Amino acid sequence: MRAQLQDLVAHLRWADAIAFHALGKCPAAQVEAEVLERLYHTAWVATAFAGILAGSPPDHHPPAEVPAFAELRQNVRAAGEALQAWIDGASEEDVERKVHIPWFPDPALHIPGREALLQAVMHGQHHRGQTMTRLKQLGGEAKNVDFIIWLWKGKPEPRWGQ
């Protein structure tokens, strides 16, 4: 189970880097409110789940101000690295240990770490797809970052460049 989760997070990090490279080639996407808000939300949620898994739950609500594209790029990258660091250092006991998800107060939600990590990965994939669709609508070139493409390419490391 742990190896599969490591692969899912490694894919997330690779896919995020590809997506940001594509977004970086489209000036309209870098300033469009819908794109920036979605990237911000995705980064905040991934960071929040990384904190939950590490035992440092986040504030319930993210700050209101959406950062610029360059900062969002760094935030998404850091969130993926935090998720990767957690799963790389997690024991089987950590993966099965229940964590509290603060957004669901009544009844309280406590799920195994593996499910919390899976939610973070799936949430990112969902919004990455939306972002690639919007990029195409703005005249950019959307990239296929499916898991199977990552496997086909030999599970490459993310290449963020500058």
Task: Provide the descriptors you would attach to this structure in a database record.
single chain; 162 residues; mainly alpha; Four Helix Bundle (Hemerythrin (Met), subunit A); two-stranded antiparallel sheet; 2 strands; globular
Which percent bin holds the helix content? 55-70%
Radius of gyration from the alpha-carbon trace, in angstroms: 16 Å
Q: What is the element string, with H for helices and E for strands?
A: HHHHHEEHH
Described by the principal axes of the CA atoms, the overall outline is globular
Main sheet?
2 strands, antiparallel
N-to-C CA distance: 34 Å
Give a count of the beta strands, DSSP E runs of length 2 or more.
2
Fraction in beta strands: 5-15%
Give me the CATH architecture, please.
Up-down Bundle
Oligomeric status: single chain
By secondary-structure content and strand pairing, the structural class works out as mainly alpha
- The fold-level CATH name is Four Helix Bundle (Hemerythrin (Met), subunit A)
CATH superfamily: dinb family like domain
Number of helices: 7
Q: Describe the strand arrangement of the main beta sheet, using strand numbers.
A: 1-2
Taken together, the total number of domains comes to: 1
How confident overall, as mean pLDDT?
94
Which runs of at least 5 residues are low in confidence (pLDDT < 50)? Answer: none
So what's the CATH class?
Mainly Alpha
Report what the structure shows.
- The protein has helices at 2-24, 27-31, 33-54, 69-89, 92-96, 113-137, 147-152, and strands at residues 98-105, 108-112.
- With 162 residues, the protein is mainly alpha-helical.
- A two-stranded antiparallel sheet has the order 1-2.
- A hairpin with a 2-residue loop joins strand 1 and strand 2.
- The radius of gyration is 16 Å and the shape is globular.
- The N and C termini lie far apart (34 Å).
- The mean pLDDT is 94.
